[in-house]
Amino acid sequence: MENNKESYKQIFKSTTIVGGSQIINIAIGIIRNKVIAILLGPAGVGVSGIFQTIIDLVRNGTGLGINFSGVKNVAENNTDPHRVAKTILILRRWEFGTGLVGMIVIIVLCKFFSNYSFGSDAYTFSIAIMSVTLLITAVSAGQLAILQGLRRIGEMAKANLLGSVLGTVISLPLFWWLGISGVVPSMILTALGALTISWLYARRVITEPVQLSLSQTFTEGLGMAKLGFFIVVNGFVATASLYLIRILIRSHLGLDSVGYFQAVWTISTMYINILLNSMLADYFPRLSVIKDDKIASNKLINEQLEMTLLVGTPMLLLMIAFSSLAISILYSSSFHVAISVLKWQMMASFFTFISWTMGVLYLSKNKGWYAIIAETIRQAVYISFIFAGWRYFGFNVLGIGFLAGNLACLFFVIYSTKRLNAFSFSFINVKSIFFLGGSVLATLSSSLYLNGIFQYFTNGFLILLTFIFCLYRLDKILDIRTWFKTRYKSFRRIQ
């Protein structure tokens, strides 16, 4: 039991370190999004969202997932100074090369992206200039991957945080000065700021000198690219789907509606990424090391899943209950038409917690095809639901379809992890999934179908009950009360 507690504590420690910096990033993002919403309006948010989707689409297609597979390789070779030095050099060179390829692709296709995304070639030059962010962010991602692979989680968190601060300081004056025309300069300067900060931290990593020719770099980096290929296809499927959905919204309802969708998508993914990225920082390297031990890896997956549900679910309930307030704070009241979509997406995020935690197993075991199939199922169901349900559900189909896609993906992940690793949920996780999932569903139903005092009372009761359950379980696995008693006694002695 003591070993179990130490494992939970390690999960919680890495989560709080990265999560703390992510929360500050969110606070910074709130300010940035608020300013963008006020200065640029829904159409400006829509333009910014489409630009970012183009960048993500090409990055996923050309980046080969090197930063993700690099984390795994650095973590596995961490005990051998020569091999880790070699891996880091290969990672840096491949990141630069893939970033350069991505930049060239956007330049070549800039007119196509402008015509297809906006219905004219008016944004051709802007998209071409924006391409440089691909090269910059690729190099920056490689440097953060080195820190993560070496499990220097605190430094990685600081680099992310300071990069976000610097990017905000740079971008806000540009939006005030240039309006929508400031979107591209802001993206470029923000990427440069993040690159500078990540370089300052990555340069502290001292490795022994190694000599590698370009041909050796290419040959020995193919292992990273092989695993990265699955990440590329997986990310490409997701990003292409998102790009198609935004184009569908623009063609049906115009750029303002793209802005509404961009707003709720940013809020939902922003919150989810806080938690999942915080946990991934330490979880993926740990799982990669024990991937061949089914009992140990399944135990770690269950521990990680329990922590994810206990930490994440209360926040889902708060986001569903206060979605109107969240949109008003993050954007403006003009975005309220998308409130119901946000609620459905937060419900879907509960199932993302489960499938994501289990799905990391695919990449740790170099079985990336499973991840591709899972993501393809998610996006195929999502898009099919939008096409089939638009006339019945209207704009809300964007949230309902997302829920349907996440459920379909989860069923596949449960089946495939059982077949691949003989995985099964622990008894406590089965109870947690039913109880916490029921709480999320009940809060969603209350928020959609009740009004006034009845809604506030029901949501308040559900949130309180869920917080009590989660705190009770966290105390069981982390000894929270003992920690507070120790700190209280220390404080009394000082007094």
From TrEMBL:
Q: Name one Pfam family in it.
A: Polysacc_synt_3
Per the annotation, which location comes first and is thus the protein's main one? membrane
List the membrane topology term(s): Multi-pass membrane protein
**Which keywords label this protein?**
Cell membrane, Membrane, Transmembrane, Transmembrane helix
Membrane spanning stretches: 96-116, 122-147, 184-202, 223-245, 257-276, 309-332, 344-363, 370-390, 396-415, 427-450, 456-474
Task: Tell me the protein's name.
Answer: Polysaccharide biosynthesis protein
Its GO CC terms? plasma membrane
Q: Where does this one sit in the cell?
A: Cell membrane
Q: Which InterPro entries match?
A: Poly_Biosynth_Transport
